[in-house]
Structure formats: structure tokens, C-alpha cells
Amino acid sequence: MARVLFINARLLDGTGKPPVSSSTIVVEGERIVAVGQGGDSPEPASGDSCYDLSGKTLMPGMVAGHAHLSYPDFDPDDLNSIDMAYPPTHMAVIAARNAERTLRAGFTAAAGAGSVHQIDRMLKDLTRKGVIQGPRIMACGQDIMPTAGGMDLKPAWWGMGLNGLPLIVDGPIEVRKAVRLQAKEGNDLIKIYPQGGHGVPVRGAMDMRPDEIEAAVEAAHDKGKLVRAHVVTKPAIVLCIKAGVDIIDHGNAIDDEVAELAVKHNVFFLPSLYMASIAPHYYAPRGDTMPPAERIALWFESAAKRLASAQRIGVKFVVGDDFGSSITPHGDNGKELAVYVRRLGFDPLDVIGWATRNGAEMIRKEHEFGTIEAGKLADLLVVDGDPVADIDLLGDLANLAVVMQGGRFITNRLAVPGAVAQ
Ligand SMILES: [Zn+2]
Hints:
The structure is a single chain. This protein is α/β, with parallel strands linked by helices. It is built from 10 helices and 19 strands. It has helices at about 90-105, 120-130, 170-185, 210-220, 235-245, 255-265, 275-280, 290-315, 335-345, 350-360, and strands spanning about 5-10, 20-30, 30-35, 50, 55-60, 60-65, 105-110, 135-140, 145, 165-170, 190, 225-230, 245-250, 270, 315, 380-385, 400-405, 410, 420. The strands form 4 sheets. Strands 1, 2, 3, 4, 5, 16, 17, 18 and 19 form a 9-stranded mixed sheet that branches. Strands 11-12-13-14-15 form a 5-stranded parallel sheet, sandwiched between helices. The structure holds zinc ion. Zinc ion binds near residues 68, 113 and 322.
């Protein structure tokens, strides 16, 4: 089988090692079959296509850790526009476009964080069959939350059989049934909303009771599904981790004690600070007198210290935020990395690791992708320049010379390859 060789690459393999220059990466079929440096590089053979990557970086495809591919670039001033502005047919077509945008932005895999009309599940099928292009999808169906929960926003008089994003259930029995319904639909991830906050209306300290959270985790794990929880306060995070939740979305109040617990239970965290960085007013507590930009600056200053400490303790962070609103359109996903580097002071190499290796590990796919190693799927990017020196490069798909998924070029802006003579 003809192979594709990338030579003279600056290799950022996603394992956390600094980039290595003069690397050769060989792709055959859907997989990476060899990686070498300098004199140890594999030699091109007759019939191979050989691309010279001088001045470019080759890195793993990224993982969108908190994807809402069905969100129709909603109006953030009207949360019901997430799921009620368009009929399901319209939403499905838009979601297919969103999936392709996400892939072209360098995200070759995505972990769902809630989708309306089981659209994630449909996208997963259609991308696998090659009908549409999109990331490899870990599907997530409806949000599970109780009556009067943060996103229970449909007034009772709307009771006309509308089936929106949240599935409103109360008590462990109903919660179990809701989780099993999502599992039956073929979802891989179950999203629960134990409380509001982080851009979602806050209606009391907690929305879900401990027995409801435990019931959700139990029912999900029985079916081999991962559970992700939208939580912000320390008692809520601790409760979720102790109940067996696998992924904490937002987790604003993380501190050293929470970090130690998270490491002990192998729980992944998504700080998800992109939307807050560009639209602070959506995150201001009700009645706050401090200007939103000042409030967010204080929050980020404190988050920088707490997240850095949590990473030292061993917490694994993953990138992902609420892309799919009018101010955070699908395809802008790569801009999030710069927030952690420029505003929170993280090492770009660490943050790239969150977006690649950690993302794959969070969805238990680290044996398949997330790093550039022989045997892994050829899900990779070629970036013009060095994203470790300039993290903003990953925020603009114009800098992605190649997006490759399973050995197939999705984007290829490289010069015509030198074909090795027969
Ligand atoms: Zn979300």
C-alpha cells in the first residue's frame, strides 16, 4: 500500500515531550506506522508520497472535550434558543455543518456534553459511515436534571409535547430511567446537572439530591457509560466525585483538597474559561455591583493559582467549552487554548497536552489517538509555524496546513508531494 511520509517535521507528539525537529512520520492506511528522527528516520519507498514539512509542526488532532454539536449558534441572551428556535430537521442539518467546522478547526474527536433530538448519536453514525465529515464522536444525549433545575427553563404552559435539551426528572427512580433511555439511544456519555452556575441560572445551592446523583452514576456505569456533571461549588464537586462521576465540567471552586480527591478517583476536569474570557457579563452573579470585566479578572487570577496547583497535584485538564453560540461559533474551538496560556499563565506544552493526550484519555481512547506514535490512528495536524511558541496559531484554521483523520486528508494545503520514483 502506498504510504504518506511527512519529512523534516517539528514533531509535537502529544506525550508532553518538547518538540523534536527533523522528524519523519509515516502513515499507511488509517494508521501511523513509523516515527523517526534524523538518521533513524524511515526511508521513503517507491510509490510513497513525501511531504516536506520544513518550518511546520506536526501534532496530534485535538479532542473537543465539551462539544454541543447540535447547538445552532444560539443567542446567549435567550437560552431557549439552544433547543427551541428551530425544528429538529433544521437542527440536524446545522449540526452536520457544525461537525465539519469542528473537524476543520483541528478537532478530530469530540466528547458530547449534551445534544437535542439525539443529534450526537446521528452524527456519530453518519461520520462513521462517511456520509458527512466530522470528529470521531462520543455521543451525549439530553441533559438530565430535576424540576426547577438551572436549565429547566420552559414554563409549564409550554407543555405541548415539546422535547428540548433537558430531560426533567425527579427522584432516583426517574433519574435511573432517564439515564437508561440515553443509554438505549446509544449515547456514550451521560450529562447531569446537579446545579446551575457558570453561565446557567442559579436557583438555589443545589438542584439534584445526592441520591439522584448516585442513581445516575450507578445506572450509567451499569451500562458502561461515562458520567459528566455540570458543577461549580466545592460541596457539589466533592459530592459528585465521591458518587463516582467521571468528568467535572467547569468545577470553578477546585482547590488542593478537591484536586487530591480528583486524582484519587481519576476524574478529569474541564475549566472551560473561553466564553467567560470573551463575554464576562454572562458570568456575573445576580446583583453583582462590580463591573463584569473586573469580576472576571479576579476570578481568573484566583483560577490561575488553583488550577496550576491542581495540575501539580496531578489533575488532568481537558479543553472544551460551550461552542455553538453566536459569540462562540463552532470552529472557534482552538481559540480556547490561548486563554490558559495568555491569561492563566500555563505552559503551552501542557495546554496542548490537555487538548490531545488528556482529551483522548478522558474518553478512554488513548490507545487509539491523542499522541503521535506508531500504531495509533493517523489523526494529525500540520501547523504552519510552532504552536508552542505562539499558541494563537491553533485558534485560526488558516494556520492548519493539514487536518488528517484516519489517514485521510480533510484539509491539505501543502505543496504537491514529491512522489518517490517507481
Ligand atoms: Zn455545555
